[in-house]
Amino acid sequence: MEEIEKEKITALHSQLLVTTIFHPMEYAKVLIQLGYEPLPPRRSTTLFGRPAMILPNVFQYIKFIKASDGYFGCYRGLSARILGLIASSQLSCKVINVCGIDLPEISDPPNIITDDEPKLEDYVKMGRRDMIMHTASVVVSYPFHVVSVRMMASFIGKEEDYNTLLGTIVSIYKDDGILGFFHGLIPKLLGDLTCIAVTGVLAYYVNKYFVKTKDLRYYTVPILTFITSTLTYPLVVVSTCMAVAGSSLKAGNPPAMPKYTSWQACWRDLLRNKQHKRGSSLIFRYYIAPIAAMQ
């Protein structure tokens, strides 16, 4: 546990740097996930030459935000994201200790030290460890995630109450109480834990039957994680929408967003309108008209 905690603290500096540098892109991505499209689509073609309506890419989106709020406006919500990273780094292991959970000692990923046959029990241990650690990390940092998302979402309706970190915290508490800081947590955890579990199972079989050298096994888990995360991405969109749904923000109420009674209702609505992959592509963004708009 102590080694894991030291590793998380060591990685924190690089995470903070990367988060700060790429925050404008994350900001634009959150607004896209919420379905906010302030710039009209234009006529273009797909990669296969078919006619299509294409939406502005993430860099054009960021340019629009900058034109509206200035350079520093592109970093709306960054303070909450940084606090979330710090909370995750400093508190995750402590929460696990307080709960009395023992994490299995296992190399990450297994079977890279030797060329021995992969053992299923090693991958089960790795999956259990990663799921426990990720759950603790998400739970302690999620309130800051909701704060960050609502700060960014306030760009849509220009709500002044959400301009500052403290103001946003007060507004969330007024809107929904303590539970408001955990809106969208279930689909977030469901997607992440599914990704971890499926990745672990696939990594075992890939390393057992296809990858025979220890050097290549090191890359199996990262590659499979990327592939699996694309399949669970719609739950990320649902989580982002539920983080603002029903709040005092314009972005979380009609006509910007339907009134969702649950995250399952949000999932069904996004799936029905083919909006469940919003933000998955930040460069080639093709316009899909909502069903309601076509009726």
Automatic annotation (TrEMBL):
Gene3D superfamilies: Mitochondrial carrier domain
Start-end of each Solcar repeat: 121-209
Subcellular localization, as worded in the UniProt entry: Mitochondrion outer membrane
InterPro entries per UniProt: MCP_dom_sf (IPR023395), MCP_transmembrane (IPR018108)
UniProt cross-references to PROSITE patterns, sorted A to Z: SOLCAR
GO CC terms, sorted: mitochondrial outer membrane
Membrane topology: Multi-pass membrane protein
Pfam families found in the cross-reference section: Mito_carr (PF00153)
Transmembrane domains' residue ranges: 135-156, 189-206, 218-245
Keywords in alphabetical order: Membrane, Mitochondrion, Mitochondrion outer membrane, Repeat, Transmembrane, Transmembrane helix, Transport
Source superkingdom: Eukaryota
PANTHER family in the cross-refs: LD43650P (PTHR10780:SF18), MITOCHONDRIAL CARRIER HOMOLOG (PTHR10780)
Family (UniProt): Belongs to the mitochondrial carrier (TC 2.A.29) family.
Identification of the protein by name: Mitochondrial carrier homolog 2-like
Taxon lineage: Eukaryota, Metazoa, Ecdysozoa, Arthropoda, Hexapoda
